[in-house]
Amino acid sequence: MTSGDFPPDAQATLTIDLRAIIENYKSCHQLAGGIESAAMVKADAYGMGIEQVAPALFNKASCRIFFVANLAEALKLRRVTPHAIIYVLNGIFPGHLDYFARHDIRPVLNDLAQVKLWADFCPEKSLPCAIHFDTGINRLGLSPTETAQFINDGAVRQKLNIALIMSHLACSDDSKNPMNRKQLDDFKAITGQFPGIPASLANSGGILLGPDYHFDLVRPGLLLFGGNPRPGHRPKGIKPVFRITGKILQIREVAPGDTVGYGATWHPGKPRHIATINIGYADGYLQMFNNRGRVYAGGKELPVVGRVSMDMIAVDVTDITISAGDDVELLGEHITLEMASEVSTLSQYEILTGVRERYQRIYSLND
Ligand SMILES: *Cc1c(COP(=O)(O)O)cnc(C)c1O
Fold first, then answer.
1. Coil, helix or strand for 272?
2. Which of 38, 119, 239, 278 is the most exposed, having the fewest neighbouring CB atoms within 10 Å of its CB?
3. How many DSSP H helices and E strands does the chain contain?
4. Sequence ranges of the domains in the chain
5. Active-site residue among 25, 42, 46, 296?
6. 42 among known catalytic residues
7. Active-site position among 76, 159, 182, 262
8. 3-state secondary structure of 276
9. Checking DSSP bridges between strand 242-254 and strand 272-277, what pairing results, if any?
């Protein structure tokens, strides 16, 4: 993906290992006991690039079912995966119907108004859809009252081609939370009303809650991209998929009495070597990492000192031998999403989807 107009090391780099995403997908399938797995590729495949990630999963991992948040994402996905099954989580609105039909995109219907809209649009059971039942997250999906109404409305159910029924867990990252069991029981009661129709409840955290939660289809996102909903216990076969590498622009010596960065928030207790690195908050490396982030270089974790600037951070490199022009890892195999999340208080999802445009992106797909 080099433009050729400038040298390859003119920017910091984001290296995305499509093979690792494929392997994580296969690991999800195994963690879910062999149940079919969809891929959640909303928000540009969690920031990793839907146009690269989705075809890799379709062609090399036989993933057939993809979920995106909105119609614009679905249309982008349709161009690169002409034969995939694509669901739109945000539902359907009156002006969108033709787009869904023309591009063979399936809506996830989230309330009775959407159910009616779709049933009236394709009354001959022609075009498939999913129905989303809210079992407690109170975000999207038919409310319990609407659910009861829908279950008893044979006429409208008759008109629909329901390819999937689904619900979404609110607390799947906390295996001890009693809400998981409650949502599971409520969803089970709903699935009982739709014999023969595939059902789906589990996101990444849900997969790790065990077989009761798997139903017919699991919907991982975070695990595909090397995140971990259960920090501390790495799920089997899940590995990091990307690396962010910054370059040292300059190294300077500072001594007691000096300060580093905006606001002069950091000052050394003894002489230190401070490297300035070409990544800042405009790249998505947010100020939550001020005086708390860590980078990896020379076989060691090194602390970010002072505030994150728009285009730069400062790192204490006193303990290693390194020079201007050398690379350091900001995220990747050594500084994992889990670690970065812990030090910054950002969620792993925010760190992933926060990765910005300015990096030179390098995709690898080594067989
Ligand atoms: C985003 C999303 C998922 C995937 O969640 P992860 O925690 O990233 O695995 C699954 N289902 C729905 C409805 C979602 O919105």
1. strand
2. 239
3. 12, 17
4. 18-225, 242-335
5. 42
6. yes
7. 262
8. strand
9. antiparallel
- State the Cα–Cα distance between residues 226 and 75, nearest whole angstrom: 26
* DSSP SS3 for 361: strand
Residue 68 to residue 359: CA distance in whole angstroms? 24
The CATH number fitting domain 18-225, selected from 3.40.50.300, 3.20.20.10, 3.30.365.10, 3.30.70.270: 3.20.20.10
Q: How far is the CA of 274 from the centre of ligand 1 (A)?
A: 40
Q: Which tokens belong to 60?
A: 């090399």
202 CA from centroid of ligand 1 (Å): 8
Is the distance from CB of 71 to CB of 102 less than 8 angstroms?
Answer: no
| CATH superfamily of the 242-335 domain | Lyase, Ornithine Decarboxylase; Chain A, domain 1 (2.40.37.10)
Which residues, other chains included, contact 47 with Cβ-Cβ below 8 Å and sequence gap of 6+?
A: 352, 353, 354, 355
**Residues at CB less than 6 angstroms from ligand 1:** 40, 89, 168, 203-205, 219-222
Each residue's pLDDT tens digit, 311-335: 999 999 999 999 999 999 999 999 9
55/107 Cα distance (integer angstroms): 21
How far is residue 220's CA from residue 23's CA, in Å, rounded to a whole number? 13
CA nearest neighbour of 223 among 239, 211, 209: 239
* Rounded distance between C-alpha atoms, residue 239 and residue 234, angstroms: 9
pLDDT in tens, 250-293: 999 999 999 999 999 999 999 999 999 999 999 999 999 999 99
Q: Please give the Cα distance from 83 to 287 (Å, whole number).
A: 42
Closest by alpha carbon to 235, among 265, 208, 209?
208
pTM of the model: 0.96
CA dihedral sign of residues 71, 183, 346, 52: negative
Residue showing tokens 């060691």: 300
Amino acid type, 230:
R
